[in-house]
Structure formats: structure tokens, C-alpha cells
Amino acid sequence: MRIFNFAAGPCTLPLEVLEAARDELVDFHGAGMSLIEMSHRSAAYEEVHEGALAAARRVAAAPDDFDVLFVQGGATLQFSMVPMNLLASGGSGAHALTGAWSRKALADGRMHGNATVAWDGADIDPSRTPESAELVLASDTRYLHICSNETIGGVRYPAWPSVPVPLVVDMSSEYLSRPIPWDRVDLVYGGVQKNLGPAGMAVVYVRRSLLGHPPEVGSYLRYDQHAGADSLFNTPPVFTVWMTGKVLAWIEEQGGADWLEAMAATRAGLLYGTIDASEGFYRSPVETAHRSHANVVFRLPSPELEAAFLDAASRRGLSGLEGHRSVGGVRASIYAAMPLEGVEDLADLMTTFAGSHR
Ligand SMILES: Cc1ncc(COP(=O)(O)O)c(C=O)c1O
Question: For 108-134, how does the pLDDT look when each residue is reduced to its tens digit (9 = 90+)?
């Protein structure tokens, strides 16, 4: 039996994609070997690789003056690569602190250049994101780094900040499920292991005009190296690229970015609606307008009830609902491949559980 997996990442992937990968895994299209055994310079792999890059560009509607890169090291490596590359010719990166992930980006950013705090939500997991007018930018600010959706706190920017500097956005947990304002961003990145595929790499969209001042760092850490080699600068994470290409193709079949966005809102609306209808039994720590469409975080009246709820969920085939270990509570991560039935089942459990434990 396939369960509904609400884990925050790695996370659920489309069943069709898993089955297709299983069917192709051992003998790739009659080659007599697996794709993951082949040279990454082979024609077969190059077709998969170029197809995945092209799909990543199409689904995001990324304009021609942006490069699309596949880089190993996950989103975490981008916490370092961004300042290394974008501050190579000086200036500082401003960081809005809306939760654990934006704090980690600041901590790493400080290792590689000047980093300032544009806004600090004070709590580790604040209940909202900043208004644009609250953001403080130093005069040499090169970019504002934001995490558009905090995976742990479940906080999301309802609209992109409007600031006089370019945005750098960590979109990991809502990757490609909201339109990107390409005229206002310089760089967007995210690990693929939530909406787009299995773990193993980040997809980075970077404005090409920024790559003219390569930093003096190891070659793998330079965006221009990846861009100049079509992300085949060294041996790529073949399995992850292959699977991500398949998930992107699946997303396009479903309806592309519009579908991703609409489905995310529908799934989230079902769960927040259930929370709000529970007369206080379930409580969201996030202000209504700032609630994540990808990670629905909520509390029950006591830790004992939370444990009982998680237990009931797991017995029903709803897994991965524990809140992040740093905060506890419940967190439903409802990424691209989570079927609506899974969310309906969770909402149903929430309603019946509240009814019998009130
Ligand atoms: C918003 C956000 N940024 C960064 C990361 C780190 O990603 P990775 O594990 O790919 O380095 C995560 C991981 O969950 C995340 O949710």
C-alpha cells in the first residue's frame, strides 16, 4: 500500500514518475545498461540533461538573459555561492530573517562577504514576513536575500518585497509554485527535493550579466563555470537530473506552473479551512495572510494530544506529519506530488479527531 507522505523533504514524488523510472532503471531504452551507469558525455545522457534544463526553464518561464544551472550541494551550498559570486566585486548582501532557513543563509553569507540584517523577526520562527517598508538596506546593498517560504515555521511572503535592490530568493519549499518576477530578481535557487525531484542538487536561475566578475574561489563554486558548461562542468548528479526532468515533464502534463500554484492554494486552503473551523482546537502560529501554501504548521491544545493525533494519522497511512524537531507540533508538507485525496484524508482526520477530543 502506498501511504500519503507529508514529509518536508525528501518528500512524496509522483507515482507515475517512480514507476516509469523503475521500468527504465536497469536497461535504459535498450542500451543494455542503466542511465546511471553511462558516461555523462554520452548522447543518451546529454539528451536527458538538456531536456531537464529546458524543462526547468519552461516551467519557470525564465527569460533568455537568465542561465539555468544544476548544482550539487543543495540549497545550503547556495548560502555560500550567492555571496561568493554576487559580492565578488564588493557591496553587501542584506538578509531578511523570517525563520530558520533565512538565518542559516545569513550565517553562511557572513563567511564570504559583508552581510547585513534587513529585518529580524526576532523569534526563530516569526508569525509573519516583513512589509517592504520595514526592510532596512545599507547604501552598498547589492541584493536582498529572502526565503520566500520558510519550511519550518510555515511562513510565506504573500507578495514579493518591493525594494530598490535586486532580490535573491531561496524558493526551496515552494519551488516554481508561484510566478517569479524576473524583472526584479537577480537569482533564484532551491533544492529540488520538495516540488521537483529527489535530493542531490539545487536549480539556480541567475541573471547572465552578473557572471562577468568571477570570484577567486574553487572552480566548482563559480556560477560562470557551470553556465559555460551547461551544468556539465564535472560529473553531474545523473540520477537526480534524470528524475527531476521526469517530474518537470509530469508537471507540464498536469498544466505547468499555473497548475502548481492553483493546486498549492487548494491543498493549503483545505487544511487552513479545517484549522479555522475547529473553534480553536487547532491553532496556526502564523498570521493568516502569511501562511505557507507548502508547509501547514499547526498545534493542538497539548503535547499529549499532538502525540495522539500523530499516532492516529500514522495508523491511517498519513506519515511524516511531525513538526520540525526544533519546534514540535504538526506540520503537513503538501508539495507538488501530494494528491488531493491525501489532503482530504488529513482534513477528515483533523475534523473527527477534534470532535472526539474536544
Ligand atoms: C527553505 C529551505 N532552504 C534551504 C534548505 C536546505 O536545503 P538542502 O538540504 O538542499 O541544502 C531547506 C531544506 O529543507 C529549505 O527548506
Answer: 999 999 999 999 998 777 899 999 999
Q: Residue 347 and residue 186: Cα distance in Å, rounded? A: 39
The DSSP string of 222-241 is: -HHHHHHTTT-SS---HHHH
Task: Judge whether residue 358 has pLDDT over 90.
Answer: no
So what's the pLDDT on residue 188? 98
118 with 93: CB under 8 angstroms?
no
The Cα–Cα gap between 276 and 350 comes to: 11
pLDDT (tens digit, 9 = 90+) per residue, 43-85? 999 999 999 999 999 999 999 999 999 999 999 999 999 999 9
- In ligand 1, which atom is closest to the CA atom of 73? 11
| pLDDT for res 1 | 81
Measured CA to CA, the distance from residue 123 to residue 262 in angstroms comes to 31
Name residues contacting ligand 1 (CB within 6 A): 9, 74-76, 101, 147, 151, 170, 172-173, 191
194 classed as catalytic? yes
pTM greater than 0.85 (yes/no): yes
Identified catalytic residue from 170, 186, 246, 250:
170
The Å distance, Cα 354 to ligand 1 centre, comes to 32
